[in-house]
Backbone:
């Protein structure tokens, strides 16, 4: 193995004494500004073109057929076990409290030829009342409507009294209220009570057509409540005439309140007191018939009124307050 050490250089490494060369010239800066165009952007001076012509409208009217729509004269076929009702009319159930009432729309006890003669020499029914009567007759309970000769008789009574303020208990389709309103002077007033929105809608239509809607004040509520409210608001003895033609079970309550509302010398008329003759038949003992009998007996003994029962239509009681 060799004993000689490795050779080491005794000379120092060379160091450069010169500094790195730095350029003394400054960086060149452009003295010229960026070129800006002196011309303004071009704007179109012409306005957008608007069409001056209007859209074309056809001057010809749409063609309307002059022929009336064909109406079937035959009524729709209905099962015989159900009441016959037009589809455009309100439906009435057999459970309606008035459905089975034995009322009549003409004077009792007259043969048809004599009844026709009676109407031919006495009835002066305005066309609007005829239309209402015919429309009402199409309902299964149309017999609730008063007879035309009875309506004319009520109008005569109102005129004899010189009435201006009247009361009606039971409106139905509005025949009796309309006939009374037509008989009243221009400042006359009818306070009408009913619970049916369905049938009084028909009444309102005819009141409007006849031009008497402003005379009739309709209250849709149980009549006893309406009458009590009238008494509570100080309208006692302010009515000239009252007509009762509503549910028979409350006849006594309607009569007693009407007697308070009507002035001395005022008249109360009560419909259906003969009840199609059933009141005179001892074999008929249903609740309605028995109540009408009891009511008739009460009025017969009532010394507060002068009384007469008139055999017109289904029987009309006239009670003049003393």
Residues:
């Amino acid at each position: 193995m060799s004993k000689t050490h490795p050779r080491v250089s005794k000379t120092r490494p060379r160091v450069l004494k010169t500094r790195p060369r730095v350029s003394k010239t400054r960086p060149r800066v452009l003295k010229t500004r960026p070129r800006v165009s002196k011309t303004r952007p071009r704007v179109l001076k012409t306005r957008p073109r608007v069409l001056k012509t209007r859209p074309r409208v056809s001057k010809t009217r749409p063609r309307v057929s002059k022929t009336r729509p064909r109406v079937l004269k035959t009524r729709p076929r209905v099962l015989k076990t159900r009441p016959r009702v037009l589809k455009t009319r309100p439906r009435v159930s057999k459970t309606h409290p008035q459905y089975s009432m034995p009322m009549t729309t003409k004077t009792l006890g007259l043969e048809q030829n004599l009844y026709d003669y009676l109407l031919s020499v006495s009835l002066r029914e305005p066309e609007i009342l005829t239309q209402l009567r015919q429309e009402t007759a199409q309902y299964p309970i149309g017999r609730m409507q008063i007879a035309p000769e009875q309506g004319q008789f009520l109008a005569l009574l109102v005129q004899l009294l010189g009435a201006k303020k009247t009361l009606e208990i039971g409106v139905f389709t509005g025949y009796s209220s309309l006939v009374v309103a037509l008989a009243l002077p221009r400042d006359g007033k009818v306070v009408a009570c009913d619970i049916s929105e369905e049938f009084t809608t028909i009444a309102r239509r005819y009141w409007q057509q006849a031009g008497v809607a402003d005379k009739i004040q309709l209250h849709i509520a149980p009549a006893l409540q309406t009458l009590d409210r009238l008494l509570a608001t100080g309208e006692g003895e302010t009515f000239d005439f009252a007509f009762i033609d509503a549910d028979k079970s409350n006849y006594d309550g309607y009569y007693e309140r009407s007697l308070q509302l009507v002035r001395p010398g005022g008249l109360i008329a009560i419909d259906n007191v003969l009840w199609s003759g059933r009141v005179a038949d001892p074999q008929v003992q249903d609740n309605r018939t028995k109540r009408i009998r009891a009511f008739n007996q009460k009025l017969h003994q009532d010394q507060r009124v002068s009384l007469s029962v008139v055999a017109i239509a289904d029987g009309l009681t006239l009670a003049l307050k003393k």
In short: Residues 287-301 form the longest helix (15 residues). The beta strands are 165-169, 189-194, 216-220, 239-244, 262-271, 305-310, 316-321. The radius of gyration is 48 Å.
